[in-house]
Design brief:
The radius of gyration is 24 Å and the shape is globular. Strands 1, 4, 5, 6 and 7 form a five-stranded mixed beta sheet that branches. A three-stranded antiparallel beta sheet has the order 3-2-8. The chain contains 16 helices and eight strands. It is an alpha+beta fold. Bound molecules: iron/sulfur cluster. The site of iron/sulfur cluster has 14 residues, from helix 9 and helix 12.
Length: 356
């Protein structure tokens, strides 16, 4: 065992997190769900989602046999919906190919949808105490600072250097504790901003600390301006029911119910107001032969995705009930239904804002 891992393990014994919901009666299934939920989401946010998910889908079979809509509804609010769809697909593979038991072989685990090298290593290490290195965001930060590893984040050369160090420090003994310890060290001490180096178990040989260069590691991605897109979201309603359409599985908010939208392409200038006579809205109304008795445009809502910014212009169209029923490609939902089904968070906010 290296001196690094020895010190990290001693720190974990006293300071590590040992009472998280997925750490009780450890099993690969719970570890897997928590690891996927924790990707880019903090522990405190994940806990209620995790508890609700496990209550509804207590094991691989329950998840595999659930409808994808039900799984997505439990995921709504966490974002990155492809992760929920991959969980569902992987559970079906586990049901059909592994008799409902989570596989224990690394190659089998890493071939499941949505599970990469680090997640596979974390699941097998935490659940079965197998020796595997991990390299999630927290571990990358700790190692990049401790070893002053340079390179553009997530580029293959940088990852190669980080994996080499991660493998070198990963102990054969107490691997499960070490994996949790590294995650905790990154989340609790070596934080993105203002790391608490005074209490860090590896501060004496942390290169970034010794050279006073912590803010430079991990190196930042070169800045690029995000493209901006604009769309109209149509709240078509008779005052009681709201018309929603299911989005295609691929692309943003894949497989979720959402408001019909009209793309306005790239956002041009600062203009965020629309005209009811806008040709695109007119075309939509003509296509579905909708007669609108009232029209209201709400303030533009901005949502930032990793690769672009989206400006959503919500427009409410009040139509009579008979007219609403002519819309055929989607379904009608009450406001209560909208709380139950998996709506993308910005769309849920837009609907609840419109209905006060
Ligand atoms: S000494 Fe500071 S920068 Fe270095 S690993 Fe510890 S917390 Fe991170």
């Amino acid at each position: 065992m290296t001196s690094f891992s020895h010190r990290v393990l001693s720190w974990f014994d006293i300071n590590g997190r040992k009472h998280l919901p997925w750490q009780q009666q450890t099993c690969a299934y719970k570890t897997w769900i928590s690891e996927i939920m924790l990707q880019q989401t903090q522990v405190s946010t994940v806990i209620p989602y995790f508890n609700r998910f496990i209550t509804s889908f207590p094991d691989e079979m329950a998840l595999a046999n659930a409808s994808v809509d039900d799984v997505l509804a439990h995921w709504a609010g966490l974002g990155y919906y492809s992760r929920a769809r991959n969980l569902h697909k992987a559970a079906q593979i586990i049901r059909d190919q592994y008799n409902g038991c989570f596989p224990e072989d690394f190659d089998e685990v890493v071939s499941l949808p949505g599970i990469g090298r680090s997640t596979a290593g974390a699941i097998l290490s935490l659940s079965f105490n197998q020796r595997h290195a991990i390299l999630d965001g927290n571990v990358k930060r700790v190692l990049s600072r401790h070893q002053m590893i340079s390179g553009i984040p997530n580029q293959s050369e940088t990852l190669k250097k980080q994996w080499q160090i991660a493998e070198k420090f990963t102990p054969k003994k107490d691997n499960n504790k070490y994996t949790q310890a590294m995650m905790d060290l990154g989340a609790m001490v070596c934080t993105r901003t203002k790391p608490n180096c005074d209490v860090c178990p590896v501060h004496v040989d942390c290169q970034a600390n010794l050279h006073d260069k912590i803010s430079e590691y991990p190196n930042k991605k070169p800045k690029k301006t995000l493209p901006e897109k604009q769309m109209i979201a149509l709240i078509i309603t008779d005052g009681e029911k709201i018309y929603l359409e299911k989005r295609p599985d691929k692309g943003i908010w894949g497989g979720l119910w959402s408001l019909p939208e009209i793309s306005l392409g790239e956002k041009v200038g600062q203009s965020e107001t629309l005209d009811f006579s806008d040709e695109k809205i007119k075309n939509f109304l003509d296509k579905y032969q909708l007669t609108v008795s009232q029209y209201h445009q709400y303030a533009t809502y901005r949502h930032v995705f990793t690769h672009y910014r989206l400006f959503i212009c919500p427009v409410q169209l009040l139509v009579d009930t008979d007219n609403l029923q002519t819309l055929s490609s989607g379904e009608l939902f009450s406001l209560n239904d909208c709380e139950e089904i998996g709506l993308p968070t910005p769309i849920q906010k837009i609907i609840f804002n419109a209905f006060g």
